[in-house]
Protein backbone atom coordinates (compact mmCIF):
# COMPACT_ATOMS: atom_id res chain seq x y z
CA UNK A 1 0.00 0.00 0.00
CA UNK A 2 1.14 3.55 -0.61
CA UNK A 3 0.31 7.15 0.19
CA UNK A 4 0.12 9.72 -2.59
CA UNK A 5 1.12 13.29 -1.71
CA UNK A 6 -0.89 15.56 -4.02
CA UNK A 7 -0.15 19.14 -2.97
CA UNK A 8 1.71 20.93 -5.78
CA UNK A 9 2.21 24.16 -3.82
CA UNK A 10 3.92 22.52 -0.86
CA UNK A 11 7.45 21.23 -0.31
CA UNK A 12 6.85 17.65 -1.41
CA UNK A 13 10.31 16.44 -0.43
CA UNK A 14 9.93 17.58 3.17
CA UNK A 15 6.48 16.02 3.45
CA UNK A 16 7.72 12.76 1.95
CA UNK A 17 10.49 12.60 4.55
CA UNK A 18 8.01 13.11 7.39
CA UNK A 19 5.65 10.49 5.99
CA UNK A 20 8.49 8.02 5.53
CA UNK A 21 9.55 8.58 9.14
CA UNK A 22 6.07 8.29 10.70
CA UNK A 23 4.52 5.73 8.33
CA UNK A 24 7.43 3.40 7.44
CA UNK A 25 5.08 0.60 6.33
CA UNK A 26 3.65 2.76 3.52
CA UNK A 27 5.52 3.73 0.39
CA UNK A 28 5.13 7.43 -0.44
CA UNK A 29 4.52 8.63 -3.99
CA UNK A 30 4.47 12.22 -5.22
CA UNK A 31 2.04 13.61 -7.75
CA UNK A 32 3.99 14.34 -10.94
CA UNK A 33 6.39 11.44 -10.46
CA UNK A 34 5.89 7.94 -11.93
CA UNK A 35 3.97 5.63 -9.59
CA UNK A 36 1.65 2.62 -9.77
CA UNK A 37 -1.92 3.96 -9.36
CA UNK A 38 -3.20 0.55 -8.26
CA UNK A 39 -1.24 0.55 -4.99
CA UNK A 40 -2.38 3.97 -3.77
CA UNK A 41 -4.73 3.64 -0.80
CA UNK A 42 -4.50 7.12 0.74
CA UNK A 43 -4.07 10.64 -0.64
CA UNK A 44 -2.91 13.77 1.15
CA UNK A 45 -4.19 16.68 -0.90
CA UNK A 46 -4.08 20.44 -1.04
CA UNK A 47 -5.31 22.04 -4.26
CA UNK A 48 -4.41 19.14 -6.52
CA UNK A 49 -5.24 19.59 -10.24
CA UNK A 50 -8.78 18.57 -11.16
CA UNK A 51 -8.93 14.94 -12.22
CA UNK A 52 -5.55 14.05 -10.71
CA UNK A 53 -7.11 11.43 -8.41
CA UNK A 54 -9.54 9.96 -10.93
CA UNK A 55 -7.50 6.89 -11.93
CA UNK A 56 -6.73 5.42 -8.50
CA UNK A 57 -8.79 2.19 -8.48
CA UNK A 58 -7.98 1.16 -4.90
CA UNK A 59 -8.12 4.54 -3.21
CA UNK A 60 -9.75 4.38 0.22
CA UNK A 61 -9.47 7.85 1.83
CA UNK A 62 -8.54 11.40 0.81
CA UNK A 63 -7.15 13.68 3.53
CA UNK A 64 -7.32 17.45 3.08
CA UNK A 65 -4.17 19.11 4.43
CA UNK A 66 -6.21 21.83 6.11
CA UNK A 67 -9.62 22.56 7.53
CA UNK A 68 -11.02 23.66 4.16
CA UNK A 69 -12.25 21.11 1.64
CA UNK A 70 -13.75 23.32 -1.08
CA UNK A 71 -10.67 22.67 -3.23
CA UNK A 72 -11.57 18.95 -3.15
CA UNK A 73 -15.34 19.24 -3.53
CA UNK A 74 -14.83 21.41 -6.62
CA UNK A 75 -12.97 18.59 -8.43
CA UNK A 76 -15.50 16.89 -10.74
CA UNK A 77 -13.20 13.85 -10.91
CA UNK A 78 -12.95 13.33 -7.16
CA UNK A 79 -13.41 9.59 -6.42
CA UNK A 80 -16.35 8.46 -4.31
CA UNK A 81 -14.35 7.76 -1.13
CA UNK A 82 -14.38 9.40 2.30
CA UNK A 83 -12.86 12.87 2.43
CA UNK A 84 -11.37 13.79 5.81
CA UNK A 85 -10.59 17.27 7.10
CA UNK A 86 -7.32 17.59 9.01
CA UNK A 87 -8.39 19.50 12.13
CA UNK A 88 -5.98 18.71 14.93
CA UNK A 89 -5.34 20.49 18.22
CA UNK A 90 -2.44 22.50 16.80
CA UNK A 91 -4.42 23.90 13.86
CA UNK A 92 -7.38 24.63 16.15
CA UNK A 93 -5.26 26.39 18.75
CA UNK A 94 -3.36 28.48 16.22
CA UNK A 95 -6.60 29.64 14.62
CA UNK A 96 -7.96 30.71 17.99
CA UNK A 97 -4.70 32.55 18.78
CA UNK A 98 -5.03 34.56 15.56
CA UNK A 99 -8.69 35.38 16.12
CA UNK A 100 -8.17 36.47 19.74
CA UNK A 101 -5.10 38.50 18.76
CA UNK A 102 -7.03 40.46 16.14
CA UNK A 103 -10.04 40.99 18.36
CA UNK A 104 -7.66 42.53 20.92
CA UNK A 105 -5.88 44.57 18.23
CA UNK A 106 -9.16 46.26 17.32
CA UNK A 107 -10.29 46.56 20.94
CA UNK A 108 -7.06 48.29 22.01
CA UNK A 109 -6.77 50.51 18.87
CA UNK A 110 -3.35 49.22 17.89
CA UNK A 111 -3.43 50.81 14.43
CA UNK A 112 -3.92 54.24 16.05
CA UNK A 113 -0.98 53.78 18.41
CA UNK A 114 1.25 52.48 15.62
CA UNK A 115 0.51 55.69 13.71
CA UNK A 116 1.19 57.83 16.77
CA UNK A 117 4.51 56.09 17.35
CA UNK A 118 5.62 56.76 13.77
CA UNK A 119 4.65 60.41 14.20
CA UNK A 120 6.21 60.66 17.70
CA UNK A 121 2.86 61.80 19.00
CA UNK A 122 1.88 61.29 22.65
CA UNK A 123 -1.90 61.34 22.81
CA UNK A 124 -4.48 59.36 24.69
CA UNK A 125 -7.65 61.38 24.32
CA UNK A 126 -9.98 58.51 23.48
CA UNK A 127 -11.77 56.14 25.81
CA UNK A 128 -10.65 52.51 26.02
CA UNK A 129 -13.58 50.07 26.15
CA UNK A 130 -13.17 46.83 28.07
CA UNK A 131 -13.46 43.45 26.37
CA UNK A 132 -16.69 42.86 28.28
CA UNK A 133 -18.18 45.97 26.62
CA UNK A 134 -17.73 44.38 23.18
CA UNK A 135 -20.01 41.78 21.60
CA UNK A 136 -18.22 39.33 19.29
CA UNK A 137 -20.33 37.27 16.91
CA UNK A 138 -18.75 34.10 15.53
CA UNK A 139 -20.07 32.80 12.21
CA UNK A 140 -19.56 29.04 12.30
CA UNK A 141 -19.47 26.94 15.46
CA UNK A 142 -17.60 23.89 14.23
CA UNK A 143 -14.32 22.74 15.77
CA UNK A 144 -12.55 26.01 14.96
CA UNK A 145 -15.39 28.41 15.67
CA UNK A 146 -16.37 26.78 18.96
CA UNK A 147 -12.79 26.93 20.24
CA UNK A 148 -12.35 30.55 19.15
CA UNK A 149 -15.62 31.46 20.89
CA UNK A 150 -14.45 29.78 24.09
CA UNK A 151 -11.11 31.60 24.07
CA UNK A 152 -12.68 34.96 23.24
CA UNK A 153 -14.85 34.43 26.31
CA UNK A 154 -11.75 33.60 28.37
CA UNK A 155 -10.23 37.04 27.72
CA UNK A 156 -13.47 38.77 28.64
CA UNK A 157 -15.43 39.40 25.43
CA UNK A 158 -19.17 38.87 25.33
CA UNK A 159 -19.61 36.18 22.67
CA UNK A 160 -22.44 34.91 20.53
CA UNK A 161 -22.29 32.38 17.71
CA UNK A 162 -24.27 31.32 14.67
CA UNK A 163 -24.43 27.95 12.93
CA UNK A 164 -26.73 26.29 10.43
CA UNK A 165 -27.94 23.86 13.09
CA UNK A 166 -28.47 24.52 16.83
CA UNK A 167 -25.35 24.34 19.02
CA UNK A 168 -24.93 24.67 22.79
CA UNK A 169 -21.72 26.23 24.16
CA UNK A 170 -21.14 27.31 27.75
CA UNK A 171 -21.22 31.09 28.08
CA UNK A 172 -22.00 31.66 24.38
CA UNK A 173 -25.38 32.81 23.10
CA UNK A 174 -26.03 30.51 20.17
CA UNK A 175 -28.19 31.28 17.15
CA UNK A 176 -29.15 29.37 14.03
CA UNK A 177 -31.26 29.88 10.94
CA UNK A 178 -32.00 33.11 9.11
CA UNK A 179 -33.76 34.81 12.01
CA UNK A 180 -30.92 33.89 14.35
CA UNK A 181 -28.38 35.29 11.89
CA UNK A 182 -30.28 38.56 11.68
CA UNK A 183 -30.32 38.90 15.46
CA UNK A 184 -26.65 38.05 15.93
CA UNK A 185 -25.50 40.48 13.24
CA UNK A 186 -27.58 43.31 14.71
CA UNK A 187 -25.78 42.89 18.05
CA UNK A 188 -22.19 42.29 16.84
CA UNK A 189 -19.42 44.83 17.39
CA UNK A 190 -16.90 42.35 15.94
CA UNK A 191 -17.90 39.67 13.42
CA UNK A 192 -15.59 36.64 13.13
CA UNK A 193 -16.09 34.42 10.06
CA UNK A 194 -14.98 30.79 10.45
CA UNK A 195 -17.46 29.16 8.09
CA UNK A 196 -16.65 26.54 5.45
CA UNK A 197 -16.96 27.61 1.82
CA UNK A 198 -20.07 26.09 0.26
CA UNK A 199 -22.55 27.05 -2.44
CA UNK A 200 -24.63 28.66 0.32
CA UNK A 201 -21.85 30.63 2.03
CA UNK A 202 -19.94 31.82 -1.06
CA UNK A 203 -19.97 35.63 -1.15
CA UNK A 204 -21.84 35.79 2.16
CA UNK A 205 -19.67 38.62 3.54
CA UNK A 206 -21.11 41.20 1.18
CA UNK A 207 -22.65 44.67 1.33
CA UNK A 208 -26.06 43.38 2.36
CA UNK A 209 -24.68 41.46 5.33
CA UNK A 210 -22.36 44.29 6.38
CA UNK A 211 -25.31 46.72 6.48
CA UNK A 212 -26.99 44.44 9.03
CA UNK A 213 -24.13 44.77 11.54
CA UNK A 214 -24.54 46.95 14.61
CA UNK A 215 -23.48 50.55 14.02
CA UNK A 216 -21.78 52.77 16.59
CA UNK A 217 -21.02 50.73 19.69
CA UNK A 218 -17.91 50.80 21.88
CA UNK A 219 -15.51 50.49 18.92
CA UNK A 220 -17.17 53.29 16.96
CA UNK A 221 -18.46 50.83 14.37
CA UNK A 222 -18.34 47.14 13.43
CA UNK A 223 -15.17 45.19 12.68
CA UNK A 224 -14.87 42.17 10.36
CA UNK A 225 -12.40 39.34 11.02
CA UNK A 226 -12.25 36.60 8.36
CA UNK A 227 -9.96 33.60 8.78
CA UNK A 228 -12.38 31.12 7.20
CA UNK A 229 -12.23 31.01 3.41
CA UNK A 230 -11.53 33.77 0.90
CA UNK A 231 -14.59 32.87 -1.16
CA UNK A 232 -16.81 33.93 1.74
CA UNK A 233 -16.05 37.60 1.15
CA UNK A 234 -16.76 40.15 -1.56
CA UNK A 235 -13.70 42.35 -1.28
CA UNK A 236 -15.07 45.27 -3.29
CA UNK A 237 -17.99 45.48 -0.85
CA UNK A 238 -15.65 45.34 2.15
CA UNK A 239 -13.47 48.17 0.81
CA UNK A 240 -16.54 50.27 0.00
CA UNK A 241 -17.97 49.71 3.49
CA UNK A 242 -14.65 50.73 5.08
CA UNK A 243 -14.44 53.86 2.93
CA UNK A 244 -17.98 54.88 3.89
CA UNK A 245 -17.45 54.11 7.59
CA UNK A 246 -20.04 51.33 7.60
CA UNK A 247 -17.15 49.09 8.72
CA UNK A 248 -14.67 50.45 11.24
CA UNK A 249 -11.94 47.94 10.48
CA UNK A 250 -11.09 44.50 9.12
CA UNK A 251 -8.56 41.72 9.67
CA UNK A 252 -8.34 39.36 6.71
CA UNK A 253 -6.26 36.20 6.44
CA UNK A 254 -7.99 34.79 3.34
CA UNK A 255 -8.86 36.31 -0.02
CA UNK A 256 -10.85 35.82 -3.20
CA UNK A 257 -7.56 35.37 -5.07
CA UNK A 258 -4.40 34.12 -3.41
CA UNK A 259 -1.76 35.38 -3.29
CA UNK A 260 -3.56 38.71 -2.85
CA UNK A 261 -2.86 40.71 -6.04
CA UNK A 262 -0.36 43.54 -5.62
CA UNK A 263 -2.91 46.08 -6.87
CA UNK A 264 -5.55 45.16 -4.30
CA UNK A 265 -6.56 48.21 -2.23
CA UNK A 266 -6.61 45.98 0.84
CA UNK A 267 -2.80 46.07 1.04
CA UNK A 268 -2.66 49.77 1.81
CA UNK A 269 -6.04 50.47 3.37
CA UNK A 270 -5.48 52.19 6.73
CA UNK A 271 -8.26 50.20 8.42
CA UNK A 272 -7.20 46.73 7.25
CA UNK A 273 -4.80 44.09 8.54
CA UNK A 274 -3.66 41.56 5.91
CA UNK A 275 -1.97 38.24 6.65
CA UNK A 276 -0.95 35.62 4.05
CA UNK A 277 -3.41 32.79 4.84
CA UNK A 278 -1.35 31.66 7.78
CA UNK A 279 -3.74 32.16 10.72
CA UNK A 280 -3.86 28.43 11.38
CA UNK A 281 -0.61 27.32 9.80
CA UNK A 282 0.48 24.07 11.42
CA UNK A 283 3.81 22.33 11.71
CA UNK A 284 3.76 19.60 9.03
CA UNK A 285 5.03 16.98 11.46
CA UNK A 286 1.93 17.46 13.62
CA UNK A 287 -0.37 17.13 10.60
CA UNK A 288 1.40 13.98 9.40
CA UNK A 289 1.16 12.45 12.87
CA UNK A 290 -2.59 13.06 12.90
CA UNK A 291 -3.06 11.58 9.43
CA UNK A 292 -1.00 8.50 10.31
CA UNK A 293 -3.08 7.95 13.46
CA UNK A 294 -6.23 8.08 11.35
CA UNK A 295 -4.81 5.63 8.80
CA UNK A 296 -3.75 3.19 11.53
CA UNK A 297 -7.18 3.38 13.19
CA UNK A 298 -8.94 2.94 9.84
CA UNK A 299 -6.88 -0.16 9.06
CA UNK A 300 -7.86 -1.59 12.44
CA UNK A 301 -11.49 -1.18 11.44
CA UNK A 302 -12.19 1.96 13.47
CA UNK A 303 -14.15 4.88 12.09
CA UNK A 304 -12.61 8.00 10.59
CA UNK A 305 -12.87 11.40 12.29
CA UNK A 306 -13.88 14.70 10.65
CA UNK A 307 -15.38 13.05 7.59
CA UNK A 308 -16.88 15.55 5.14
CA UNK A 309 -20.58 15.44 4.29
CA UNK A 310 -20.46 16.00 0.54
CA UNK A 311 -24.04 17.26 0.44
CA UNK A 312 -23.34 19.96 3.03
CA UNK A 313 -19.81 20.46 1.59
CA UNK A 314 -18.13 20.40 5.01
UniProtKB/TrEMBL annotation:
Pfam families: 2-Hacid_dh_C. One of its GO terms (molecular function) is NAD binding. The keyword Ribosomal protein does not apply. SUPFAM superfamilies: Formate/glycerate dehydrogenase catalytic domain-like (SSF52283), NAD(P)-binding Rossmann-fold domains (SSF51735). InterPro entries: D-isomer_DH_NAD-bd, NAD(P)-bd_dom_sf. It comes from the Bacteria. It comes from Roseiarcus fermentans. Coiled coil: none annotated. CDD domains: GDH_like_2. The keyword NAD applies. Residues 101-279 form the D-isomer specific 2-hydroxyacid dehydrogenase NAD-binding domain. This is Glyoxylate/hydroxypyruvate reductase A. Keywords: NAD, Oxidoreductase, Pyruvate.
Amino acid sequence: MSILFAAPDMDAGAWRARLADQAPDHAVALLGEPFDPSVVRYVLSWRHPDGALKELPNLRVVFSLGAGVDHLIADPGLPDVPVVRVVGPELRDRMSEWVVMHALIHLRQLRRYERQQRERQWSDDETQPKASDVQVGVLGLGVLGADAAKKLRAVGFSVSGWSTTPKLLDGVRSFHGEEGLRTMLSEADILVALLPLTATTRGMLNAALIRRLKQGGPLGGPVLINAGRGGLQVEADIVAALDRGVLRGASLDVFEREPLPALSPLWSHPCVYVSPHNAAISEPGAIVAGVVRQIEAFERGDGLQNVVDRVREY
